[in-house]
Design goal:
This protein is mostly helical. The chain has three helices and no strands. The longest helix has 25 residues. It is extended.
Length: 82
C-alpha cells in the first residue's frame, strides 16, 4: 500500500482533474459547491482522528463490515436508478 502522502496526492490530483470535467458537463453548480463545503469539516475531522484511532480498530473485523455496507449501498443505488 502506498504511504499516505502518495495516496492523498493521487486523490487531490483526481479531484483537480474531475471537478473541471463535471463543471464542463454542466453538473457543478452553487448547490453542489455548498454541499461540498458543508462536508469539509467532517473530512478534516476524519483525517485528524483516523491516525490515532487506527491502532484501536481491528482491521480484520472492520473490513468485512465496510465492504458489506458498501455492497448494500451499491445495491440500493442500483435499485433506485432502475
Amino acid at each position: 500500500m502506498l504511504p499516505c502522502p502518495l495516496r492523498c496526492g493521487r486523490f487531490a490530483i483526481g479531484s483537480v482533474l474531475t471537478l473541471p470535467a463535471i463543471a464542463a458537463a454542466g453538473r457543478l453548480g452553487w448547490a453542489e459547491l455548498a454541499v461540498g463545503a458543508c462536508l469539509i469539516p467532517a473530512a478534516l475531522l476524519g483525517f485528524v482522528f483516523s491516525g490515532p484511532l487506527r491502532s484501536h480498530v481491528d482491521a480484520g473485523r472492520v473490513r468485512p463490515l465496510v465492504l458489506g455496507l458498501a455492497a448494500i449501498a451499491a445495491v440500493v443505488l442500483i435499485v433506485r436508478t432502475i
